[in-house]
User: What shape does this take?
Amino acid sequence: MLKKTDFIQPAMHNYDNIKIVALDADDTLWVNEPIFQQTQEKLKELLGAYVEPAQLDKRLYETERKNLSLFGYGIKGFVLSMIETAVQLSEGRISGAEVKQIIDMGKAMLQHPVDLLDGVREAVEALSEHYELMVITKGDLFDQENKIARSGLADYFRRVEVVSEKDEATYREIFSRNGIKLEEVLMVGNSLKSDVLPICRLGGKAIHIPFHTTWEHEKVESHQANGYDYDEIGNLRQLIRLLNPKKSPALGDREVLIEGRGFRLRRFSPADTGSLAYHANNANIAVRLQDRFPHPYTEEDARQFIEYARSAEMESVFAIEVDGEAAGAVGIMFQPDVYSQSGELGYWLGEEYWGRGIVSQAVKAMVQHAFGDLRLRRVYARIFSNNIASKRVLEKAGFQFEGMARQAVVKNDRVLDVFYYAILNPGM
Assistant: This one.
């Protein structure tokens, strides 16, 4: 029999004392470094007649690093370093028209749309109701303030700190000036060098959200991070799960059925609304399910389902959590009257996680839950005749084919048969 337990993620810290969440901006809230890389590629094309691309990359980085103490971080300093590098590598042959093109590249960067990263708006909105949010970011003051204003997130932040460097001294000064206690602040960002390690050295708490590309100056060798204690998550949405809005220990109030290989089954939470809507809004999932599973699938649909799942009396429903997100659902629907010792199994999982064997493990876990905890005699499932993947899932879990209801379903104007599969409790 599977034992139900209260789950607290073993690798995660306890954030009970946190009152303030400080967020980095570039590549934590919105896309930044890829814009620089795209511009650098344009510079290579422009200077192709003067220099080899690899030579430009190396020289530009050296120039940027040398100029940081003069120009600081940001687009304007980057543009000046591009011009200086172009003059040096062309030995002064670069034309005024070509310099103007570089300046125009910089203007385009400054006007680039602010593209929020996955889960950012959801996380900021959810956490702002329970925590004081602030931004601590490096760069040009005007540019960073402009991006915050254009992001649509400005009203959620109590404070915005744009600094020339992010090290222990800077953080210590910011916290002191704002009357912030180190033990009450959590720093979150994509840079180990700037967002995480300085806070760890001060004895505070930080969370790393890796970004797929990192500027050379922000890279940290693995040995430099060894010995420092910090958590790492995949996207900002997962911060909601760690910083439970009730301010209890991370995920501590969620009942978990089982932890599997690469997933876990647990009770739904209102904080799952965004991720549930994201993964459920998929025609390839909806086509395999009854029409009560809507498409498009909105956040309002997700809210209603979560509310139902948390209070359902005739169903035992669990979220399938993968990578910290509610990426699917699995449940047993109890049957009335003389069928009360039978339960109907239902499930779905976000398409990006198909093929990992997660659904098969989840189904097996639910069967054990049904037989061991719920004391059901029989679990059955109904699947459309064109759903070959579910047929394999059920057979792997020990279900046997019991029969077919011919032309029992009309889904998207297509007439389908329905296959019945069932498994019996061996202990009864």
